[in-house]
Amino acid sequence: MNTATDARCSDDLLWCNGEEYCNPVSDCTSMGSPCQVDEICNEEADRCEVEPATWVSTQILFPDFAGYKAPERYELDGLRNLVVAHLGLSEATLRETWPNATIEVFATDVPLGVETDMYRVVDDPGGPFEEIVVQTVTINTFHLSVRGTTATWEFDYIVVDDVDGPFGHSVTSRQFAKRDPPEEPPEPGEQTGDITGARDEITWTGVDGTFQRCEVGGDCQTPTPLDWMLGTWTKE
User: Up-side HSE of residue 140: CA atoms within 13 Å toward CB?
Assistant: First the structure.
């Protein structure tokens, strides 16, 4: 009786038909496409891709910060990495926290890997306790993966609030997971959920991440597990 030996099968140099193996009945053959049912195989790049898509979220990236509200929209590329996040930020939402402040919104969209100034608030303008808050956001990691009926979102982002006033300070807040600073690089946080058969809606069921505040030039608080409201993403 012959023994199937995969090593005897030569690579046909085609990535999209999968690895070659020895089938005792049909001789050398390929395993088939390595891609998921909703993915397109890119032979030239040796990778699986999807059509770029925008997801609408009922949760927000920054639940611990004033001014952000759902829905938010996340544009992803063919590798499901973020292109730009359209955040639910406006002067009206900021005014709920600072009703009498002078408010200037610089941006509501944040591209991946770009340090973005979001807004400037002057509270008690001209008064004895005038305080100026400038917020900056950087999204380092934002990737969605889908395997079968399970969706996983990897994230790592930083918010910096520079506060100038009688009690001026600068606070850096980071949402990530699995490794505490000052170890670098931190492993991204993960949110997992179930994706429908049509692959157009994700119901998030759990999150593994931490949140930490650090005073610039000062001490960092102990990272605490993320405890935010889980929601859904729907493909536009």
Answer: 14
Query: Would you kindly state where each structural domain of the chain is located, as residue ranges?
Result: 15-48, 53-235
DSSP 16: T
Site of tokens 């020895």: 22
Token look-up 């994230």 returns 155
Q: What are the φ/ψ torsions at residue 231 (nearest 5 degrees)? A: -135, -145
Would you say 112 and 81 are in contact if contact means Cβ atoms under 8 Å apart? yes
**Cβ proximity of 142 and 155 under 8 Å:** yes
The predicted structure's pLDDT at residue 217? 66
Residues 40-62: pLDDT tens digits?
Answer: 777 776 777 778 999 999 999 98
> What are the φ and ψ backbone dihedral angles of 213, each rounded to 5 degrees?
-110, 140
Q: What is the pTM of this model?
A: 0.81
